[in-house]
Amino acid sequence: MEVREKAKIVITVASLVAVTVLFVAEYRRRRHMRKQTSSSLSSCYLHSELKSQFGFKRVLADNSYSGFKHLKLDNASSSLEKSSNGHPYETEITVLLENPPIEFGFLRGEYSLELSDSYVWVETESQLKELAEILAKEKVFAVDTEQHSFRSFLGFTALIQISTHEEDFLVDTIALHDAMSILRPVFSDPNICKVFHGADNDVLWLQRDFHIYLVNMFDTAKACEVLSKPQRSLAYLLETVCGVATNKLLQREDWRQRPLSKEMVQYARTDAHYLLYIADSLTAELKQLATEDSSSPDDRFHFLLEASRRSNMTCLQLYTKETEDFPGSAAASSIIYRHLNGHGDNSNISLNAEELVRKLCAWRDLMARIHDESTRYVLSDQAIVALASKHPTTTKEIYDTIAHTDLATESSPSLSSSVQSPYPVICSHLDDIYEMILDKLAKLDDILPVVLKKCLGTNGTCPISVFNYSLLVNFKTKLSSHSAPKQNGHKNFKQQFTRKASRELFVKKFSCKAPVYHNCRIYANDGRLLCYCDKRKLEWYLNRGLAKLVEENPPAIMLLFEPKGRPEDEGNDFYIQTKRNICVGCGEGKHYLRYRIIPSCYRVHFPEHLKSHRSHDIVLLCVDCHEVAHAAAERYKKQIATEFGIPLFVRRVLDSKEAQGTSSLVEDESTGNSEDAGVSPLHLRSAAMALLRHGNRMPSSRREELLQTVKMYYGGRDISEEDLEKALLIGLSPHERRKLERKKGVSFKHSAEVAGMDKQEDENNDGEAPADSEKIMNVERSTVADDSGDGTSEEDGATELNDTQCNGNTLHQQNSKLSLLGHGPHGKQIVEYLLREHGEDGVRGFCQRWRKVFVDAVHPRHLPGGWNVSHSGRRDFGEFSVYNPTKRLSTE
Length: 892
Ligand code: AMP
Ligand code: MN
Ligand code: ZN
Description:
By secondary structure, this protein is of the alpha/beta class. It is built from 36 helices and 12 strands. The strands form 3 sheets. It has a 6-stranded mixed sheet, sandwiched between helices. A 4-stranded mixed sheet has the order 8-7-10-9, with helices on one face. Strands 11-12 form a two-stranded antiparallel sheet. Strand 9 (547-551) and strand 10 (556-559) form a beta hairpin. Helix 32 (773-783) packs across helix 34. The termini are far apart.
């Protein structure tokens, strides 16, 4: 009885809530629609809304599609420095990295841990100048920032908290947005240490909003990392080191609000106030660790220096605006991937709806930029999915679809908050969506210019501001650079044409000329299928009398020994399916290249037994998917470089003696991780090679470009032919250098010989200079047989095919091998670090991260069943397997 009563109540309450929800939605819809129709269509919500960033007069990162321009210092000496968009304080940070500070006095004299009652609110220019003067006198101060991102396209810093030994300052960076350069000098002063916790974002935000660059920073999160603390969050440190509790939920508050609530002030101060104390305490631990751990006094401060080094590596990061091929394309791909064919939730999108998703994402991207809103404020992902799958046909239906979807999926209960989805952008521009849904024929390329013109054109509906002005000015170039060349100018057409031609050439040269997977089969002696593989593997077993041929076409063998286990018993279905000779990304079957999911620069350094299971991590991709995967991998390498503090690039630092002509050269391969801090060995060598071979014949602009690459390595000075020859060897291990010399039968020590060799080779070469370094990098992935292509893998396709089979251009490949072997010290150091710190599990985890990067970038739809990110790909047949080193020796 009682239970039934309860159930009744529950049902009643639930229905009441449901009715309320529907009622509120309906009410809001009517209100909005009334607003819409009563005012003229040309009124954008922004005319009657004041957003705090509209007070900013100067905006460094606007919402256009053009790149971010970094601060240029007047004292940049060489023209190279002036023209580059590199880190303005790279030199200062590099100096710090090479000569780290030895003294870390974070606290001095009396220090009270407690948060006092008073703090300083800084909101006028004179107050800010005063603060700058105070900070200039300090040796160290602590910093944290809060940013607002919901009602802004790129986000902006809404508050900076600065704590000195004596005082907490809260800087109102909304009121002072245009005056913040006043703080630039103290932040870039190498003699003042800035303490942050988890500075990665703050470093970028400060660059983006104020051109403030950090030099000399100590990141307490990096200290935790070096100390291998169980947790690295500030909340954890506050609690364990200071005994202070903090409510991290407040980080999601709207930091634009003024005045800040009491709790927000308390939270903001807490984030910076205790950092000096925490830094002091962690430093002591780091020193302690050093003393315990060190055998010689020389590396006493090892751990502390490492923490400091990692912190300052973060400062070398450069803010960039995200770029994509087409507005909204990344978001669209992600939505389609998540909702197509049952990935993610159950709201599947049909193939027909894909196009609508792309249109809505592109429109959302442009609308967010025009109005300076986050994309999620314009239209949520789930609303896009709902619109694409439900296909509403009236503005009312469109409105309701969005309202109901967002109401149902809202993460926080927001019946209480004043504004809800559909937000005003949608309400004032609902007709756009209506047209996009109805006009199925309209091309994406045509929609965006129309939308832009409607909003920002001469009689545009929406206000022009510092955020969207250059969007209006630059938009044409952005679009025309990737749309069809129909009405574009001559130059653009030529660009399109050469791009197409170079793509075709590339496909011709580097795609695999024969099917990669032979789909030969290996059976166990009980007749059960063990795996598919290539011909060479069959031969390996046949030649050793370990198997007999049981079928001819396609060939199959039966093992004469009892192999270890059966694939289906081990859940290893991966190996007993045929593999298709198509791009695993998009299914393209006309051409494909091998793609190594784990870049060779790491893989070559793996222990042999982890290296040999390759079929899992080498997949086929068409040129387009290859490029996507490659670009993502290059980005991720940079991330790895920062994360591990192991730079990707090499650079020789000029010493004064060398500058005067005496050649006492010290090779310096330890600089920052940013592209501008150096050059990848691969780029360096291919540029040097092209210059040596074709320098006289290539267009001067191309030569200049390649020279810049080499100069970057040599610190910007003029370079001689000898320099170019030396550059050919950079990044090669001694072993690789010998191999190269042996191959060519020459020694690289003398310039004449190198030049002679290359001239001879010219006849065989097609005389083409590497036209596109990106592509060269791609080739490296697909053709250089650098991980011991001895044809002894257990699975199909894992074996490197020989040149003629795969490449059809043996000579060219020889050349590319010549220029592409060797990757510099980065890969080796990373793998050594992983093995040292985490053993082989570290390497396995590392592989999984790369598989995830691949999946996230390409969204492959044609991976073999059973392939997944955590699958190790390991499978061998035990004692007599090709993997068994002792067996291999005795049979060979
Ligand atoms: P914090 O220094 O931890 O207070 O974070 C700084 C800023 O990062 C905040 O003002 C937020 O804008 C942003 N942020 C950090 N974590 C989150 C989160 N979990 N959700 C939303 N925003 C966050
Ligand atoms: Mn904070
Ligand atoms: Zn508008």
